[in-house]
Design goal:
heterodimer; A: mainly beta; elongated; B: alpha+beta; five-stranded antiparallel β-sheet; three-stranded antiparallel β-sheet; 8 helices
């Protein structure tokens, strides 16, 4: 039986303001991705080291390094140059949830008997956004957006005509938030499953609508999304799903980090079973 | 005096011409405004339809005004329109057929502006949908005009209708190979490929006992934007993986048999060293 270590340590963070003097550079490690920010008289350069060829580095370590215009320019590095008449002295680096729904596939299927409910904790991958600050000092123009880790893709729906393109992650579907491994490039989503039907609910895949979820950071530096409730009713073809307003109660001292990419018109939606559980 | 009379008779014609000219300008302006507004609300294809519709409606309004200036009775004109359309129909059957086919295409919407379509042997991006024809830009940057009637009559494949596509890879392995191992390697490659979709699952099929090989088909699914990348890279990876595992992709084989009643082909084994020595000057 696998032991579940409590995750009480403070996670270092890779997001925040990137303030550099001219001809200065800084390296940021965000999960498996390495970013090198450089500021010149009329441009900002951002180098992304390809995560496919990168081993996992220390989480969130930020270190200054000596500047060279061509430093770090290797074959696997993608370089983005943002040229401006007078570049701002700082950029804003922010985490975001995926731009498409994430399908979580438990390592082994879960079975929820009739008239039972359970809370699961699923991790979904994060994206990194770089903003240019506006005149008020808030996030203005989005300069760059990238996923922090390579994500598998999948089609989710009853057939190849109906459905949507999603990202896919395997999950251990932990039942306790402390059992979820703390990674700085994943956000945790509490899921509450209610089986109000008369049949067993076999969970092989679950569609987590992350573009509709906001992002908050708790005291320990872990990122959380609001809780999502799924209620399977007597009519087994329909599932009611609801995004709970506000921050999850488990995220102590949480502060809002990012708004949802798209807002649902209604908090409670009813969808076909096949469109949420595959 | 004659000049004055001539000018008086020319005056309605002049006004009609000015009206038509103004109509053309107004139609162009209005259609542009309408499509600019529509583009913020609807797709590019529908914005183009709004553009064309506005243009023709405004132009027809000014044409009616110009005809009134020339003294035509519109009720008579409308009455004659039926006869005229029949006459025009006989005179320009092809154009009329294309026109009506164009209307059917607009209603049926088998593809939209910007879609990739294949008509017979031509594949390209739809860059314009007009009353008589559609225009395609092929991958080698050629401009192709296809009459609407042809589209109604022939098979049209829209390559960009659905977000995902299946990539079928036909391959053959030697008869001596272990097929479960081949199958395992193929599935591992698909799983490791970043652009192959997890679902729908890859498909493995044994097709036939071929002349020179065991013929197989391996199909994977990908986003339509990744179609070409997956088709190219996955086949390269299959070749590399088969080479690494010592799996043979055979060349065509031919066995020559002269029949039972004839003598076999005379075969003489030659020592390569002796053969090389005999050919030396």
């Amino acid at each position: 039986m696998a032991t579940q270590k409590p995750q009480n340590r403070q996670l270092p963070t890779w997001w925040g303001e990137m303030s550099l003097a001219i001809n200065e550079a800084r390296t940021v490690l965000a999960g498996p991705l390495t970013l090198i920010f450089k500021r010149f008289a009329q441009e900002w350069q951002i180098d992304l080291d390809n995560p496919l060829l990168q081993t996992y580095g220390p989480l969130g370590r930020v270190a200054k390094q000596a500047l060279s215009v061509d430093a770090g320019q290797e074959a696997r590095v993608e370089r983005y140059r943002f040229v401006m008449q007078s570049p701002p002295s700082r950029l804003m680096v922010r985490p975001a949830l995926a731009d498409r729904a994430v399908v979580c596939r438990p390592v082994s299927p879960l079975v929820l008997p009739p008239q039972q409910h359970i809370q699961l904790f699923l991790s979904t991958p994060l994206w990194l956004q770089v903003y240019q600050p506006d005149k008020a000092g808030k996030a203005g123009q989005l300069l760059l957006e990238t996923s922090l880790s390579p994500n598998a893709e999948t089609w989710f729906g009853p057939d190849t005509l109906t459905g949507e393109l999603c990202y896919m992650v395997q999950t251990c579907a932990r039942l306790s938030p402390d059992a979820v491994s703390a990674k700085d490039h994943y956000a945790t989503t509490p899921i509450r499953l209610h089986n109000d039907g008369d049949n067993e609910l076999v969970l092989e895949r679950l569609n987590v609508p992350v573009p509709h979820l906001g992002l908050s950071i708790c005291e320990k530096g872990r990122l959380w999304t609001p809780e999502v409730n799924y209620r399977c009713t007597q009519d087994s073809n329909q599932v009611e799903f609801k995004i709970m307003p506000g921050v999850s109660a488990l995220a102590k001292g949480a502060q809002e980090m990012a708004l949802p990419r798209t807002r649902l018109r209604r908090q409670t939606m009813v969808r076909a079973w096949k469109l949420l559980f595959g | 005096m004659d000049e004055w009379i001539n000018f008086e008779s020319m005056w309605p014609l002049l006004r009609a011409c000015v009206l038509m000219l103004a109509g053309l300008l107004a139609a162009r302006l209005m259609s542009r405004i309408a499509s600019t507004v529509a583009r913020t609300q609807v797709k590019r294809h529908d914005a183009m339809l709004v553009n064309r519709g506005t243009f023709y409606v405004v132009l027809i309004l000014f044409l009616v005004m110009a005809l009134r200036e020339l003294g035509f009775d519109l009720s008579v004109l409308l009455g004659a329109a039926g006869i005229v359309s029949v006459a025009l129909g006989f005179a320009s059957q092809t154009s009329a057929s294309n026109l009506i086919s164009g209307l059917f295409l607009l209603a049926e919407k088998p593809f939209a502006l910007g879609d990739l379509i294949r008509v017979d042997q031509t594949t390209g991006e739809v860059i314009s949908l007009d009353l008589l024809s559609i225009k395609l830009r092929t991958f080698d940057n050629l401009f192709v005009r296809i009459p609407n009637e042809t589209l109604i009559k022939s098979e049209v494949t829209t390559l960009t209708k659905f977000p995902i596509r299946r990539i079928d890879i036909a391959l053959g392995v030697a008869y001596k190979e272990d097929l479960p191992t081949v199958q395992r390697i193929l599935f591992e490659l698909a799983k490791a490929h970043p652009y192959c979709l997890d679902e729908p699952k890859p498909l493995y099929m044994f097709l036939r006992f071929g002349e020179s090989s065991l013929d197989l088909q391996f199909s994977v699914w990908a986003k339509r934007e990744s179609f070409l990348t997956v088709r190219t890279t996955l086949q390269e990876q299959i070749k590399a993986a088969f080479d690494a595992a010592g799996i043979e992709i055979p060349f065509p084989h031919r066995t020559l048999y002269t029949g039972a009643t004839t003598d076999p082909f005379p075969v003489r084994q030659v020592d390569p060293a002796v053969e090389a020595g005999s050919q030396a000057p």
